[in-house]
Design a protein that fits this description.
Largest sheet: 7 strands, mixed
Number of helices: 8
Helix content: 25-40%
CATH topology: Rossmann fold
Number of domains: 1
CATH architecture: 3-Layer(aba) Sandwich
Strand order of the largest sheet: 5-4-3-6-7-9-8
Structural class: alpha/beta
Strand content: 25-35%
Distance between the termini: 49 Å
Shape: globular
Radius of gyration: 18 Å
Number of strands: 9
Length: 262
Amino acid sequence: MRSSCSFFSLSGTCFKPIQIKLLSCKRLLFLAFFYLGLRLRALFQPQCKERYLIAHNSSNCCVLDVGCLNNSSLRAHLLAPKCHYIGIDIWQSIDSIEPFSDNQEIYIAPPHRIIFNLLQLSKKSSLVIAAHVLEHVDQPFCLLSALMGCVEESGFIFLAFPSAKSVNFPRRNRTLNYYDDPSHLRSPPDLDKALDLLRKNGFSTHFISRSYKPFLAYIIGFALEPLSSLLRVRLPCTWHYYGFETIIYAQRVGYSTPLDNT
C-alpha cells in the first residue's frame, strides 16, 4: 500500500507542503540491498552516523540531520523507523530528498539562512547529525554553535568533515583531496577550534579521530588502492585507507548559550 506525507520546502520563512508518493513494491529489492549496505557500513565503520541512528531508534528520540541529501531520509527510515526525523539541507536541488514516513520532516534552506532556520526550530533533538556540512558553509563555527543549541540535555552530536591532511591527498574523481570538490570552501574546519567550542558549551567528547581509519575498512581500502590509483577515482573505503574524515561524537553534559562563544 502506498502512502504519502508532507514534504516541506523552505523559502525564507515560508513553509510550503508538497505531497510525494512513497514506497512501491518495485523498490523492495533495492531497499533490501540498501539496508544490507547500511548494516555492513556500520560493521566496517563503527564510528559512522548509521551506528548512532540505530542507537536512537526510539519513539522518544528526535534526530536532526543537517545535510540530509544522499538518501539520508531513507537511511533513517530503515535504521531508526521509530524516531522523529528532521532533515535540513543547504542545497537548492530537492531531487534526491523525500520523506519516507509520517514522522519525517524535510526542509531546504539556502546556505546563508541555514543558521537562522536552525534557531527557529522549537524542538530539541536527542541526536544532531552534521556529516560533511561544515566545509560547505561560509561560517562553519557559527553553524556549529547553532547545531549545539539544537541538542537536548544529555543529547548527542555527531560531526564528520574532511581532515586537515586531506589538502595533501592525491587528486581523484569522487573526491579524495579536499580541493577535488569545488563546493568545499577555503580549508578544512579546524578540529581543535571545534573541540574548544564544544567544551565551552557543556559537551563531553566520547570519540575523536583527526583522521579516521577503521581497521576493516582500512584493509579493504588498502587492497583497492592500486585500482583506485590506476583509475584515479575514489573507490569504497579509499577514504578510510587515507583517513579522509575527521569524526567527533560528543554529549551535552551541561548547558550554556552557544552563540556566546563564537
